[in-house]
Known about the structure:
This protein is of the alpha/beta class. It is 50% helix and 13% strand. It is built from 38 helices and 23 strands. The strands form four sheets. A seven-stranded parallel beta sheet has the order 3-4-2-5-10-1-11, with helices on both faces. It has a six-stranded parallel beta sheet with strand order 12-17-16-13-15-14, sandwiched between helices. It has a six-stranded mixed beta sheet with strand order 18-19-20-21-22-23. Helix 30 (651-667) packs across helix 36, helix 31 (671-684) crosses helix 32 (689-702) and helix 35 runs antiparallel to helix 36 (824-835). It starts with 6 loop residues before the first helix and ends in a 6-residue tail after the last helix. The mean pLDDT is 90.
Amino acid sequence: MPGDIDYVRLLSELSSATFNVLRPAQLAALQRYAADHSSKPDLAVELPTGAGKSLIALLICEAWRREGKTVAVLTGNKTLARQMEHEGQQLGVPVVRFEGAGDTIPLPDRRRYRRAQAIAVMNYWVMFNQNPVVDSADLLVIDDAHLAEGALDSLYSVEIDRHAQPVLFQALVRDLAQAFPDYATFQDALANTPSRTGTELLSFLDQSAFVDRFRAIVDSAAELQTDIDLRYRWARVRERLHEVNIYCSTRSLWLRPYVYPLQDNPRYADPEQRIYLSATIGDPSDLARRLGTKPIVPLPIEAGQAAETYGRRLLVLNPDDAADVPVRLANIIAAALRIQPKSVWLCASKQDAEEYRTAIASWLGAMNLPAGPTWLLSSLGDEIEQFKAASAGHLFVGGRFDGMDFSTDQCRLVILATQPRAINPQEEFAAEYLRDAGFMMQRLNQRIVQALGRCNRAADDFGVYILADRRFGAHFGQESRRRGLPANVQAEIDLAENDTLLEDNALVARATAFLKRDFQDFDRDLAQAASALPQIANGLGRDDSIAEVAGWLELHSRQDYCSAEESFRQRQEACSTLGMRELGAFAQWCGAKAAFLEGRRGDATAAVRSLDILQHAIARGGVSSWFNRLRSSLLRHQQQAPAARTVNPDDFRVVMIQSFDDRLEHVGIGPRFEKWRARLTAGLTSRSHDQYAEALQTFGTLLGFSTTRPSYGAATDCRWRGVFGNQREVVTWEAKIEHQDTSAVDAHAVGQAHNQASRAWTELNSQGYAVRGVIVTHLEQLDPAAAASIGFIKVVRQDAVAALWTRVNELLGVFASTWSAEVPEARLAAAESVSAYLPATGWLIRALDATTIFADGEALLREWPR
């Protein structure tokens, strides 16, 4: 491998007309590499967007090639591969680009690569696939390293999607719901309604019990014959059904190991060195976790050079508007599109991108703006070049935030439509249930920084970035959540926060002036924001993934379950040292899974030990509702659960505490939280029908129910559907709260309540739901016709609901006074502070059943301890 190379001389020898001088950051990186990092097996090079990482990579590649070493550069898509090839040609180094299926790659080009006569450039999938044709390299450069995860998804996972494979998905969910009734996700999927529990991870005990049935259903699926990608993926995963994790949501079932076994892939293992390039490496330990690599060493670069950025960015925050396109932001977007009719919409998922594409097409027409063309970015990325070449149009992107470069007038407007905290089911699970997983917050910040570089490729570039999801405001409002963001980005965020105080017209004028290259006010205000920043400490890198990566490699790829169990034990101990309670509990869960799989081989001691470890994991992670739900799985496995479904009185308390936690995660504990509480108080005492129905829906969500406002012809005003362990209940609410001359509930309202309760009963009674119909009103009596037809419908006083909210609000305040977003122990303390004051599972059904017709505040609060 190359030793002490003079890269300035090498660049001079190449006589490139385009690249003839090294920037300070490039020179420093190359000198450091040559001096003491050319022999590091896994090396990360992190420099800001536009800093010239490609030139660094190509010079290192050429130095290796000149010593007779084979060199391959991997990129995120064909467009980036062509771009890297073009830069190589401009530099004057020999480059061949591999594209398409292996048998279509010209043999002469492959020979040039094998003989170190040229540097090979290709996208990840050409190198990492089921039957790779391209030989391993001596030096492997992985550009935009985080994007490589997508190639590994296709190689080591299979996703069964509600929309792509509807028959197969429905068959699996139906049988899973029957086998495991305590998983709310399966019930929600059957009802095709949003899930209160989000994405769940199937217990390995339930997974093992269902493996044979799972395999039989998929093997016999007609979609396996028509969907080639599904067939290939299933063939790779089929024999690892005990080892993979199964993530379950109302949208899909995703089968994958928690960490991919990349280290056992020859195309990864063979190279002498692997270099990972990105503007946002962040914590190299987390990159190793995401890709399954060996420990990655970062190339040291001085902070001033690493923080260097290019061009100007005007960030615009959503103050607190839940609309798809809030009016305030819509005015700015429209003004920007009238200057240049192009935009890029970055979304957390493909589903989000598809929905925004549909919504924005309609909105553009309503605003008399050019409607298209529009593109939805595919994995191959061909749409990027089409968008760049167009004079107008809109590109919608799901689940990725780098690997797209738009310079000069190719695009000036980027909208971050949804907050990218989680971009796949495994991340959704971690974000929901492993709240002390600091790496998830780091990934969010990485993606934000990646997104903010799409239109800033040179010193004279500039762009407007709309952070449309209102959660960005809550996120940036907590200093602890800004860790890992460069100082210049923090200053831009501070300026965006200041701009939320501007009137709409003033903000539109600011954005318009910026896009017309009037930067005087912007430069002055940004300089002031930057000067006010405190000294920023990075604070990354505490959490080491070595044992975690090793454990999953041993469990999934090598099936050395005993070694895996030991690795997970080390991981759990490290988490305990760092105070990461839920991550430590998850490490114990992984260790229990490893011991269980060893037990399946006949080791009775391991089988017993597995259940003991699992019990400790449940106890450790009990503040997270997922760990609490594992108790049912454990009882089922031990065959201790009676045939009748028993109701655990604590199940409601666990779900409601999780709901409290979710709310504070969303709004924080500052002014936004107080504003939200005041808005809900106003809504639940309002006599405006729509305002009240919206508040009732929000209140039900806080109480742990999945709440909807169905759109039937005579729609109920709100439906609460709850799954609390084995207790399933539905309450339909018909609101009669407007000011009217009448002083009594009429028969029409009763009829509506009966209709909605009957619909709910028809849809959900067969799934074991208890259904109750309710009218909520300020009125104190029924008229004769209503009284004659009231039947099983109950009438709840509006002031009774308000009294219930007052009690819940008190407990929420107690919870918030102890809660912390960053300290797991504080979350546990917050849960303990309110748990004893929450009612037992089934309290609402019992309160309604205990009343004759009218329920007051005393009836609703009867089981709420004081």
